[in-house]
Amino acid sequence: MQANREELQILFSDFNPEVVSLQETQMKPNSNVSFKNYCIYHRPGTEKNGTFYGGAAILIKNSIAHKDINITSSLQAIAVRATLFKSITICSLYLPPSSKWTKSDIDDIIAQLPPPILLLGDFNAHSKDWGCPSNDRKGKIIGDLLTERDLSILNDGSTTYLHPGSGCK
Description:
Elements: H1 5-15, E1 19-23, E2 38-43, E3 46-48, E4 51-53, E5 56-61, E6 65-69, E7 76-83, E8 87-94, H2 103-111, E9 117-122, H3 137-148
Parallel strand pairs: 8-9
Antiparallel strand pairs: 1-5, 2-5, 3-4, 6-7, 7-8
C-alpha cells in the first residue's frame, strides 16, 4: 500500500470515497500505515523471506459508523459492517493466482457475513461474464457461487484487468 500511497491520496482528493477496498496490499501484520480521516482494517498476505505478498484491506472514513467483522478463514479476507444510508457488510478478498481454494472456502466466508453484503476483490478468476476473453475453472466456481447465492456482479462486461506494462487488456 505504501508503494501506491500517492495514487491513493489522489483518489481520496478527487473522489472523496466513503469506503475503499484494496487487494495485494503487501502489508505486514502490524503495519503502521495511516491515511488522514480513514480507519484501516487489513488482513496480511503470505510471508516469504521477510516480504509480505498479497493481503486485503478496507479503508473507511472515520465519520462512518462501522465495526470490524471477525472472519474465520485461511483466505486473505477482511470485512467491516458499515452504516451508510443503511447497514451493509463490506468484504475485501484477495485470491492469489497460485492459491488453492474451493467454492466451499468462499461460501464459508459469505456465511459469516451479515447481509446485505458487498464482496469485493481480486479473485484471479477468468470469465466472459466480467470481460475476460475466456473462462477458467476459478471463474466457473465464482459464477456458480453467484448463481447459487443470488448475488450480482457489478460489472457491465468491461475488462477488469489491464497489463501494467502495456496498458492492454
